[in-house]
Amino acid sequence: xxxxxxxxxxxxxxxxxxxxxxPIGYSDLVKITLPNGETKTGQVLDTxxxxxxxxxxxGTSGLDKEARVKFLGExxxxxxSDDMLGRILNGAGKPIDGGPEVIPEDKLDITGAAINPYARxxxxxxxxxxxxxxxxxxxxxxxxxxxxxxxxxxxxxxxALQIARQAxxxxxxxxxxxxxxxxxxxxxESQRFINDFEKTGALKRSVVFLNLADDPAVERLITxxxxxxxAEYFAFQKDMHVLVILTDMSNYCESLREIGSAREEIPGRxxxxxxxxxDLAMLYERAGIIKGKKGSITQLPILTMIGDDITxxxxxxxxxxxEGQIVLSRELHRKNIYPPIDVLPxxxxxxxxxxxxxxxxEDHKQASDxxxxxxxxGRDLRGLAAIVGEESLAERDRKLLKFAGQxxxxxxxxxxxxxxxxxEGTLRIAWQLLGTMPESELVRISPEIKKxxxxxxxxx
Amino acid sequence: xxxxKLFRISGPVVTAKGTSAxxxxxxxxxxxxxxxxxxxxxxxxxxxxxxxDTSGLKPGETVETTGLPLSVELGPGLLNxxxxxxxxxLPVLRQEKGDFIARGITAPGLDRKKKWDFKPSLKKxxxxxxxxIIGSLRELNTEHRLIVPGNIKPGKISEIKEGxxxxxxxxxxxxxxxxxxxxHKWPVRKPRPCSRKLLPNIPLITGQRIFDALFPLxxxxxxxxxxxxxxxxxxxQQSLAKWADADIIVYIGCGERGNExxxxxxxxxKLIDPxxxxxxxxxMVLIAxxxxxxxxxxxxxxxxxxxxxxxxxxxGYSVALxxxxxxxxxxxxxxxxxxxxxxPGEEGYPSYLSTRLAEFYERAGRVVALSxxxxxxxxxxxxxxxxxxxxxxxxxxxxxxxxxxxxxxxxLAQRRHFPAINWLTSYSLYIEGLEGWFSExxxxxxxxxxxxxxxILQEEDRLMEIVQLIGSDALPERERITLRIARMLxxxxxxxxxxHPVDTYSPPKKTYMMIKTMLRFAELAYAGLDEGKRAEKIxxxxxxxxxxxxxxxxxxxxxxxxxxKEIEREFREL
Lengths: 460, 574
Known about the structure:
heterodimer; A: 460 residues; Thrombin, subunit H; Rossmann fold; 3 domains; eight-stranded mixed sheet; seven-stranded antiparallel sheet; 13 helices; 32% helix; B: 574 residues; alpha+beta; Elongation Factor Tu (Ef-tu), domain 3; six-stranded antiparallel beta barrel; 15 helices; 26 strands
């Protein structure tokens, strides 16, 4: 039986320092019992012959030197089973929906291991999200990790929910199960997620991990690992296609920084620890497809950019690990356009693997390129038009200016429950918009494609 | 002997007491024998960076030294392999341990069972020393030359055998008792010696017009290539790997995305070497250490790659090494440095960042190997500056050592200009050194023609600023002609279709003749203007627009000569 120690020598922030222990394993799980019987859990962050440093997930408030510390001699593990579907768990994996404990089929180490690059299969199945700006211009493919870069007050959660509701792979009648991990979001936001899940019946094929704003910050460090461990179980042991939504990764990084400074580490950029890149990579890279396995993990992390600054270390490092990003724009949001996705800085690096003939349609790439080009030019012209007036612009420029406006109104804007089919919906609108431009202006599109799909659109 | 005990574990950096391991020695840590490397020694404490996850390690577990620094196995079987950063073969790991990289697994870098047909080129009594080639064997389609390793004392051959051997069997004995096998080990952080270094004055011909003509790389040269989002870096790298006239390609995926590495691992084996019609992988070594694999192995991957490159260089081959990306490597250094609680330099990078970068790039070069054969390593290092900011330390320190910079430009890629190399911000300092080669092997006025091309392109950039203000119609006639010629240069010369069977490779001679034809048009056009001909008429000359078609012609000489005659005829008829 494991020994209990009453040798806490120091308590600082979320950390406790325990003296005179037997050899304790690094990253082992720790159980702390307070004199009043309350228990807390923690994890070993640093272990040596002299002293063991433990981070306490529930925070150290109420702890004193009288508390008893027990080292469990194993890594943090998540009990997994099919019964997890439909359940709501807290950030540490305990049920909080009033239901019974999950009877585990297996217990999995939440750290996870890197997928052997040689074992990975290339992602190539188009996921239709029903959102035009994503489907046509920043296509999501199965096995991809595509974050949403948002700002405080923008409707990233609605978009995530809409994707979770609507995502499917056309032609393959398999739906996704959704693993939802909330880190430090408000109670209200989480209510909305859960209500939505319940209303649409999606909860039956979801697992929800909730670490709310008033839950211990340190717990946030294990919440995404729990979620991804569950995802790996369903994807690679149960052959399911899993969509993982992680929100909000900025809160996760804040916790990482908090632990770093409590340990008195030398900070890196903006006070975040130097290992944040590797730490994030170990989460984000747990997406993908494995050769010979039927399931897949697609990740949709959400992060709020601090001060809308895309060069801030969190979005910056994230962008270097994920395969692109969906960027939300405050300007579009102010114009009351939903979803306020700014396509210009958005990108899907795996898009080309999932589109084209046999997957979506042969004109997909070219139509997307042309929309990008026209919208970019049209937006640039807004500045000029503001100075010289719209009337003094050349005919072509006026058309482009109008194009940019209509693009936002007709293509970007859509309903929160509007699920646009790629061919019948999204591409149809795209060609309508392209129809406002003279055929000769569409230089990104080959003559054959134009012949097949182009027709001038005269508006009333 | 020399076994120590773990004292402290804190992430991937652990401390041990009582071990006799020397600096940079590889050690085996704990019950699971995790692989680690000594990175600091102070008093009785030895700090070790562990290449694997350290969860569950306890103080008091043993630390066993191997007595050797981090080394790679060099011998036949490297080509067509896919390794992680510490030379563990990934396909073997998958076969033995499944889809995830478990802890404490080891697999030798070279296949121990495979037999190779060795043929000696020396005989009993011949004198050998480190670097001497004593025979060869066939490794796929490469002649693999067996070199006397550096740790063998000079001596006379007392026995040398012909026949089939595994990499561990001795094929040669010396009179001083030394045995030579097909395989030996070399510490990765130590450059392999060579006889002397040569000046980089032979180009690495890539068949890509923008590189060969405007920004050439010398054999043994170093180039940096930034990879902004969506700029077609992968296609550019594949074109280079396919067409560069290097015998061996080493590709290091250092801290790359898993799914992108998959693309490399899927795509490269499909590529066919255009020269031999055999798979390109037959002369490639791939190293894949994705961002979530242990950070210490990422740090090591760059050294593993360049050591393998040096090994083939020593056999007398020209090797091209691509490192993608060196920024991820620098970040690994930063991370380890911060774990060691070292005082950080700029942006948290260790103060020795510039030294490490310079040391790495210095291992490139064209050399006379110890075997007196000439070999080279050309390094193409990708940098990925955060937020696209070129003033950050890794980019800046890289630019200080590299002599060629190929600025991949996402804007060009969006305009579908491929390869998306910006001709205004790129540069190559090798042009001068390579002038002699080009004027001898291609054409005496190579350099002068290239300079004319650059002049016109720079002129265009200046003119475009004016055009944006006042429109092109307001330009003088001469300038309008210049703009047209510049456009021809951009579209016909700089753009190249990597997917067209003919255009994918443009020999220097063809590149030169294309330039000459366009310059001939320029010459006639300016002369025509001086004679009072109207710019519209000159711009209407039809034959000039057909120059671009030569991209897809195999018999380019006849084609271009025909066009030139046509252009001249049209000018006469104006």
